[in-house]
Design a protein that fits this description.
Structural class: alpha/beta
Shape: globular
Strand order of the largest sheet: 10-9-11-1-12
Radius of gyration: 21 Å
Number of domains: 3
CATH topology of the largest domain: Cobalt-precorrin-4 Transmethylase, domain 1
């Protein structure tokens, strides 16, 4: 039995930056530092930061007045920002810059008089933050069938944005339905699905047809990890998502000759290596890293957190 290792996998630039913001804030201000929601959707990452002194809260009313608070990588609504300012909290924003780009698109589209359609998953914090960039005139669709139920005052003044961690293929189907119903719909200048989501899905599409089982390391709350499992399954390969090597059932490997391994954008590489070690203990005799896109994207920390040698960064 052999294992194929997808490339790229695991942490993206936005996740690296978000974790770095929490670690640097703890370094500068000491514990506790408060974080609104999970900084990224991975229990291992959240647990490690909690041990360092980060306190994760659901809402800002759980944060003492004047404390340091960090917004998660998924972004927040304008109302949350206003509440933090009103309460005098010292805010550091770990919103992924690619999510911030979508926020700015929504604000501009509303200023220009468009009703905005958000393609995304209801209840996901990124969707809630993006929808919260407008007081009204923004509508959520989760699947192509939802498009027929949209009600807008002017079909000629409709635009769309998307959650950054969607299935590329599923999103294309919804966009096609929107364009069929609203031929003049305005779209982002550049697709909103982020480079890391695209790259990881492409890597799984290339790997899965060679495998009988694909294992995705990720949290059940992680949108991009769930999408990786779905992408693998759509190739006809059995696909399972696990939080860590501990969740691997040896029975899944019975009769397998080739197992694929990847990880969502919020899953650390140490979890991948632990899974590979467990696979080898269970009979995998070779691990073959596949060729793939080498990602070089880096997002700098906020200026107030940058180390002296980094202070000139953008």
């Amino acid at each position: 039995m052999k294992a194929l290792l997808a490339q790229p996998r695991g942490f993206c630039a936005g996740v690296d930056r978000a974790i770095g913001i929490v670690e640097r804030a703890l370094e500068l201000f000491g514990r506790p530092v408060y974080v609104r929601h999970e900084i990224v959707h991975n229990e291992h990452v959240v647990g490690a930061l909690r041990e360092q002194g980060a306190v994760f809260v659901d809402e800002l009313d759980q944060v003492p007045a004047g404390a340091v608070v960090i917004f998660s990588a998924h972004g927040v609504s304008r109302a949350v920002r206003a509440e933090a300012e009103r309460r005098g909290l010292r805010v550091f924003d770990a919103t992924c810059p690619l999510v911030t780009k979508v926020h700015m698109e929504v604000a501009k589209m509303r200023r220009d008089g468009f009703h905005v359609v958000m393609i995304g998953h209801a209840g996901h914090p990124e969707v809630e933050g993006t929808m919260g960039q407008a007081d009204d005139g923004i509508h959520l669709v989760e699947k192509a069938a939802d498009v027929d139920r949209l009600e807008v005052p002017d079909p000629e003044r409709v635009a769309y944005v998307t959650q950054t961690t969607l299935s590329v293929d599923d999103c294309l189907q919804i966009v096609a339905a929107l364009k069929a119903r609203f031929p003049r719909i305005a779209e982002p200048k550049k697709q909103d699905i982020c480079y890391a989501t695209q790259n990881r899905q492409d890597a799984v599409k290339a790997m899965a047809p060679q495998c009988e089982l694909v294992l995705v390391i990720g949290s059940p709350t992680s949108s991009n990890s769930n999408r990786l499992r779905e992408v693998a399954a759509k190739t006809g390969c059995e696909a399972r998502m696990i939080r860590s090597a501990d969740e691997l059932d040896p029975a899944w490997l019975a009769g397998r000759r080739c197992v694929g391994v990847t990880a969502g954008a919020s899953a650390p590489e140490e979890l991948v290596q632990a899974l590979l070690a467990r696979l080898q203990a269970l009979g995998v005799d070779s691990v073959l890293p596949l060729e793939g896109v080498r990602e070089t994207m880096v997002f700098p920390l906020p200026r107030d957190l940058a180390r002296p040698q980094e202070s000139g960064a953008g």
